[in-house]
Amino acid sequence: MDPNYSAQDVARCDLCKTAIAQNYCDFCHVNLCKLCIGEHISDDYEKHKIVPIHQRKSTLIYPKCETHQNKTCECQCKDCNVFVCSHCMASSQHSGHKFLHLEELFTTSKNCIQNDREELNNTIIPTYEGIVHELEMQIASLDGEYKKLTTEMSKQREEIHREVDNAIDEMEKEISEIKVKHRSILQKHLDEIKQLQSLMQQTLNALNEMEESNKVIPTIHYSSNTEQFSKLPPKVDVSMPKFIRKQITKEELGTLVGKLTPFSTTLEERVFTAKKLNTSVRELLDEPEVLNTIKTGYTYLPSVSCLNEEQIWTSGFTADIKCFNIQGVLQKTIQTKSGEWPRDISVDGDGALLYAYWETRTVYKVKNDQTEEVITLQGWIPVNLCVTSSGDLLVTMYSDETQSKVVRYSGSTEKQTIQFDDEGQPLYSRNSSIKYISENRNLNICVADWGAGAVVVVNQAGKLRFRYSGHPSPTKNKPFKPYGITTDSQGRILASDCNNHCIHIIDTDGQFLRYIDNCDLEKPYGLCVDSNDRLFVCEYYKGNVKKIMYLK
User: 0.85 cut: is pTM over it?
Assistant: First the structure.
């Protein structure tokens, strides 16, 4: 049996119906066992094309010529816009005309199909999932928000006693009606979004079928319609009514209770916040090259973050956070507010430095030499940081090393918590506080879960996409325990394997691509990539940062 096929994929011979098919006729499109090949090709050996079954459908199916029998059309007349065979091309009817090869048109359309499928999978669909998640969260929180409103009104009711009970009851009825309208508007918008998702899934299924198809006519006539999906629906912004209390005297009781702000709905245009996809493909170098080694002076060096193409921030087990240029010259040193070493560092879109400190359970921001507290947690300890393409802050955190989660913040406001999968099971290990984090260009959230021995990747809505647990290698015989993690412009994920002194490169779907293991790396730890896809690697015990070129 072909090793590329599992038991459930076994194909039977279309002639004898019993034997396992090892071959395929790419002309007649039938499965064949070895014994039936001779019988199948006995009528006309030349017209058949027998290939191994795993290479089936490798031959293009050209249209038959309408003018010349038994001829196939391998070109299209550009002037007449018709398919032509070799006899047609030589005829006087098409003299002086220009011809296009159908194989080239087929390849171009296939590339368009593949690009559209990738854009739907990696960008458009995840963005819609995020919209659905946001709307569902709004709907789920409606009862709580409106309960706060009615509670505030109840305080007013207690102050003015029975005289205003009837007025309060009328307002509560009004709130219930508004809430129904509020829910109805959001639900309607959610239903519209889900309908669009369904249409996109249908389109994606059709694209998958076309990509597998070798039929030329429908393929070259394919016309992309992803542009209509790329225009995001407007965002429904429904303002919450407010209860405005009024200080009243006994004389005003019964007439002045307060009022609710008007219920209103506005539409706000949405735009994609995903990182712009790099249309030029940058291939991996066969032999990555160390461009420079920066000596930081740290005894232990866990973290590095790119400020720009010319500067990096580094942090070790001291209170000093150091900024170096790429030549290795120290540019600046910042002291942590606590006087202790930070758990991790990151840089936001404005160039401000962020760092986490476990004892105060706080994330700090340093800008223009001024330090401010951005987030202070209760019951949780912040560990690793990542600033997203939209400017949000992702924080990995743990609670007494029994629970771990990822929380998204906009400024100091918590927007999203990622902790459990669809089965209610923890996404991340509970026995480790080391969880470096990065955002991919398709807005996936990638966590190097040291305790689990895996890279855990979820989409923007927090739904698990895959886990990568290392790649078998006779020379990498120690358990995979990822520390640092970063992503590049191509969507590739890079994770440091400290135990095996190498870096794993995997694609956006978790498939292993290559090791970086020829740069004399020793205990690689923290990672970051600049805008030119230059990789910076912390060597934990040496205290060095190596700058590596790994893309062509």
Answer: no
